[in-house]
Amino acid sequence: MAVLPIRITGEAVLHSVAEEVTEFDDSLRQLVDDMFETMKEAPGVGLAAPQVGVGLRLFVYNWTDDEGVLWRGVAINPEVWLSPTPTGEADEDDESEGCLSLPGERFPLRRAEHAILRAVDLDQKRFEIVAEGWLARIFQHENDHLDGVLYVDRLEHDYTKAVAKVIKKKGWGVPGQTWLPGEDHLED
Ligand code: ZN
């Protein structure tokens, strides 16, 4: 297993629609292993293939809920159904989200409270997870990555300026930037 460099916003693969997985071979298994390792090292609760430079429709997740249940797996060629997104302003304390492709930053974002994830695993076995709360948020966030959408693309107007400022200050928003979990230390 290997820790892979994580692409930072500005890299084309993060802003492009990923392709369906059609080859369920050893190299796909290797990619998934490496993505789990990279997510653990980062650390993160989810990681999508475009974030490690691979334009394929899959993501991994690893999150323990309030009741101590571990939700961990890989979703390949996923589909996500959502309950309506609540209206009103996002709460800075309870709804702030981060992304390994904008490392060290968090901004509040409203998300649907409920999500149904349907996908296949490495053995092409279909599965379905009915998620709520933060797990539903993770699925929405990771599935968005497969359509070239970052959470900052969805922020309320007031926060878009702050994001642009951060991206400018850190020199992001241009191709070719990565960070390596375990080696690069985040500034904040
Ligand atoms: Zn992300």
Describe the structure using short key phrases:
single chain, 23% helix, 188 residues, 3 helices, 25% strand, globular, five-stranded antiparallel beta sheet, binds zinc ion, alpha+beta, two-stranded antiparallel sheet
**How would you write the strand order of the largest sheet?**
2-3-4-7-8
Q: What average pLDDT do the residues reach?
A: 95
Specify Rg, calculated over alpha carbons: 16 Å
- Helix tally equals 3
Report the biggest beta sheet as strand number plus sense, adding barrel if it closes: 5 strands, antiparallel
**Shape, per Cα inertia axes:** globular
Structural account:
The chain is globular. The strands form three sheets. It has a five-stranded antiparallel beta sheet, sandwiched between helices. The protein has a two-stranded antiparallel sheet with strand order 1-9. A two-stranded antiparallel ribbon has the order 5-6. The two termini are 28 Å apart. The chain is of the alpha+beta class and 188 residues long. A hairpin with a 5-residue loop joins β3 and β4. 23% of the residues lie in helices and 25% in strands. Bound molecules: zinc ion. Zinc ion (ZN) binds next to α2.
Set out the fold topology.
Elements: E1 6-7, H1 26-41, E2 46-48, E3 58-64, E4 70-82, E5 96-98, E6 106-108, E7 114-120, E8 126-132, H2 133-146, H3 157-170, E9 178-179
Antiparallel strand pairs: 1-9, 2-3, 3-4, 4-7, 5-6, 7-8
The chain binds zinc ion (ZN).
